[in-house]
Specification:
By secondary structure, the chain is of the alpha/beta class. Helices cover about 60% and strands about 10% of the residues. The chain has a six-stranded mixed β-sheet, with helices on both faces. Strands 2-1-4-5 form a four-stranded antiparallel β-sheet, with helices on one face.
């Protein structure tokens, strides 16, 4: 017994999206029914007009009769085409909104992934799925939305009318139709396979292009333009080949369906012409039947082609499904009748600034926490047990690969522990909602990611400045990050555009913009501020100055409302003398903890690191 395909029934699985489009689908479907009720009129009225013209030629009808017959033909055509325009517009809008909603849900799903999952799937592959696969899926679903009326009911109306005119002739003329459907059904696996290969090759190409464009300066510096260009060219060749394979199959099947179905024209001319000759049919009846059949064979190939595109949509759905978040429910039935082409279901009001229900510093605790990266043969952290009171300034150091950054990422909730628990403010980080975590924890990594946009956009994360409080928060963050002087030299100051990935600012400015963001992106100072080697691009004196400023603004001398618990992870010890507690990691374990003076006095690992840095920082002549 064969296993069902992962794409089987995917149209049914997408039904929440149809509910979001109920108004559009209703109006489009009513228009489709109206179109297909009247679709038989133009051929029949054309035949009638020809018969009236022939009667007028024989003197049995007047010119007025001919004119009236012509007007009826025009009216019948209008009765078909006006609903067709309405149907295509409303169902086209429905398809556009379907694609937009699925794409938004795919992005929402990826944004909700845990960090370890995002590291497994290349960004280029994710982009190709969200862009290309959603488009293929939208084409498959759109075929069902539109072609149900444009092709299926259209063809049914024509077929019924032909059978009314002549059952025997219709049966003979339509004999090739089952053959075309069999070909479509049998070719389904090939269509799905070639579609999947085309999508996978595009994902590979997109991934490579993204990596190489981001590293453009490095590629030029090492003179690797030619081999990289050749590599991308090879991937583009593979992508073009797989895309052409899919296109060739699609076009070949379309041509096959048309040729097979067109064979019925011979039957219509042969048998229908014989009926005219023998006086059983009028010329107008033959023309009407022929017009009905020609319209049928012009549209009927769309039936098997629709089957193939639905099958291709299934292949795209298989690649897309792991990304999708559950579709958002429509919060209000009235919104089912929203006809905007860009409406995407979601909250009616978006809070730009996240607020924590609690204020003041948060306690921080780790209970028997261990962590191992997937596939790693040794743990990054082992049985870490630590309790930090609210408002403390904790500094963390240790040798390379000792587990410092892993500790910071666990504290910020970026990764989940393999065992044990992490608490912020007495609550497990795993149980915090995304909004609660964002409102409580500020984080600055070693290499802060900057976006295209202004300095202000990167600090506020596009929340903007809307009132005196948000303006004050922004100015405070800029001051604490020591950005004031830099902004004086940037064109347009805080509104200066910094380019893609922040290419127009220095490394030190990047880190300080990241610090300002960690301090204010939530609309207020965070309850827990995690800094992972944040000042590596600054000199030692600037780092100590920044830390002293943060301690003054967020530490014991600040009001309780503005205080924060600070975790500073750094390999440089310039500011460690200010810390309430120092943790020293080695091989994933806390091997020493205490104040600066206590750790110096025991002459352990911390003291050795401190002495080594003191030697490295001595300049000729004995000056610091």
């Amino acid at each position: 017994m064969t296993e069902p395909s992962p794409s089987s029934g995917y149209l049914w699985k997408l039904r929440p999206y149809y509910r979001q489009l109920l108004g559009l689908l209703t109006i489009g479907s009513v228009s489709g029914v109206a179109m297909n009720v009247f679709v038989i009129l133009p051929p029949l009225l054309l035949g009638h007009a020809i018969n009236v013209a022939l009667e007028a030629q024989r003197g049995r009808a007047t010119a007025s009769d001919v004119g009236l017959a012509a007007l009826l033909f025009v009216a019948g055509t209008a009765a078909t085409e006006v609903p067709r325009v309405a149907k295509r517009y409303w169902l086209g809008v429905a398809r556009t909104r379907f694609v937009a909603s699925v794409r938004a849900d795919a992005l929402r799903g990826v944004l909700a992934w845990p960090t370890e999952r995002t590291e497994k799937l290349p960004v280029g592959d994710v982009m190709a799925r969200i862009i290309g696969d959603v488009q293929i899926l939208g084409t498959g679903v759109g075929e069902v939305m539109v072609e149900s009326w444009d092709t299926l009911l259209f063809s049914l109306s024509l077929t019924v009318t032909m059978f009314v005119l002549s059952p025997s002739l219709s049966l003979l003329a339509l004999t090739p139709v089952p053959l075309a459907l069999i070909v479509a059904q049998r070719s389904g696996l090939a269509v799905a396979k070639r579609t999947r290969q085309a999508r996978e090759s595009e994902s590979t190409l997109t991934t490579a292009l993204r990596e190489h464009i981001v590293a453009l300066r490095l590629i030029r510096l090492f003179g690797r333009v030619t081999p990289i260009t050749r590599q991308v060219g090879d991937l583009a060749t593979v992508q073009a080949r797989t895309e052409l394979n899919a296109i060739r199959l699609d076009e070949a099947l379309g041509a096959t369906y048309s040729i097979v179905l067109a064979g019925g024209v011979v039957v219509v001319f042969w048998l229908g012409g014989a009926r005219v000759v023998h006086g059983n049919w009028s010329v107008g009846t033959l023309v009407a039947f022929l017009a009905l059949f020609v319209r049928f064979i012009n549209r009927a190939p769309r039936i098997p082609m629709m089957m193939n595109r639905v099958q291709a949509g299934g292949a795209a759905f298989v690649r897309l499904q792991p990304l999708l978040a559950p579709p958002l429910d429509v919060p209000n039935g009235v919104r089912w009748w929203t006809f905007s082409a860009v409406n995407i279901p979601g909250p009616l009001v978006v809070n730009n600034r996240l607020r924590s229900p609690l204020s003041g510093p948060a306690s921080f605790d780790m209970q028997q926490v261990s962590f191992s990266f997937p596939g790693s043969s040794y743990p990054s952290l082992v049985d870490v047990d630590i309790s930090v009171p609210p408002g403390s300034f904790v500094a963390v150091t240790g040798p390379v690969a000792s587990g410092k950054s892993t500790f910071a990422r666990l504290a910020a909730g970026l990764v989940a522990p393999s065992s044990g628990h992490v608490f912020v403010g007495g609550r497990s980080v795993a149980q915090l909602s995304p909004d609660e975590r964002a409102a409580s924890i500020g984080y600055l990594s070693q290499e802060p990611h900057l976006f295209s946009g202004s300095v202000a956009d990167n600090i506020t994360m596009w929340a903007g400045v809307h009132d005196e409080e948000s303006s004050a928060n922004l100015l405070t963050a800029v001051s604490l990050a020591a950005l004031d002087h830099d902004l004086d030299f940037l064109p347009n100051g805080i509104a200066a555009q910094i380019g893609e990935l922040g290419v127009r600012v220095s490394g030190g400015q990047r880190q300080r913009i990241g610090l300002a963001r960690a301090l204010s992106a939530q609309g207020r100072q965070p309850r827990l501020l995690v800094l992972d080697d944040p000042f590596s691009a600054a000199d030692v004196d600037t780092e100590a100055e920044l830390i002293a400023g943060l301690r003054q603004a967020l530490g014991p001398t600040a009001s309780m409302e503005h205080r924060s618990t600070v975790l500073l992870v750094s390999h440089r010890l310039a500011a460690f003398a200010l810390a309430d507690l120092i943790l020293v990691f080695d091989r994933g374990r806390i091997v020493e903890q205490g104040t600066h003076e206590e750790l110096i006095s025991i002459n352990g690992l911390y003291a050795r690191i401190s002495r080594a840095q003191a030697v490295l920082n001595v300049k000729p002549g004995g000056e610091w």
